[in-house]
Amino acid sequence: MQEGEIYYAVLREIEGQLVRTDYSQQAWQGAPSGVFGFWKSRVSSDEQSVDPKPKVEAVLQLFDQLYEHPQPGQEAIPFILALLLMQSRVFRLDEVETEEAGDFWKIFCARRNRFYRVRDPQLGEEQLKGQQESLLQVLGMVGQ
To answer: Is the separation of the CB atoms in 103 and 97 below 8 Å?
Structure first.
């Protein structure tokens, strides 16, 4: 691929693990079946290679996809992405609503000019840390 070329990164679950696959724009025929989420990006100008780190907008697109189409067994992923987007100051926590079904975070996104309501999966600190590290590794964001 050449510098500036568009590519698509796809996340899918294979044997209980999230796996990332990159496609050139020419090879892209739309999201394959069984896709957990995807984003569009450009080949990095630094090394003329695929940028392994999705930009904040790509993470926000992935969050939007998972928010609109939740995946069974992966309920913690939108919450973890919301935490990452809060760290990047894309999301801001408005309030926490406690209901019989659990705690829900009401989060505002100025880029989308909308509120999201994300369920806190009530993971223990070690569980949350482990899942966050796993997601960061798959996204190529370790060390950011």
So the answer is: yes
pTM, entire model: 0.71
* Rounded Cα–Cα distance for residues 55 and 97 (Å): 30
- Residue 124's contacts (CB-CB under 8 Å, 6 or more residues apart) are none
Q: In the chain, where are the structural domains located? A: 6-139
In this predicted model, what pLDDT tens digit does every residue of 55-107 receive, in sequence order?
Answer: 788 788 889 988 998 877 778 889 999 998 998 899 999 999 999 989 999 99
Structure token digits, residue 42? 């450009």
Phi, psi of 126 (to 5 degrees): -65, -40
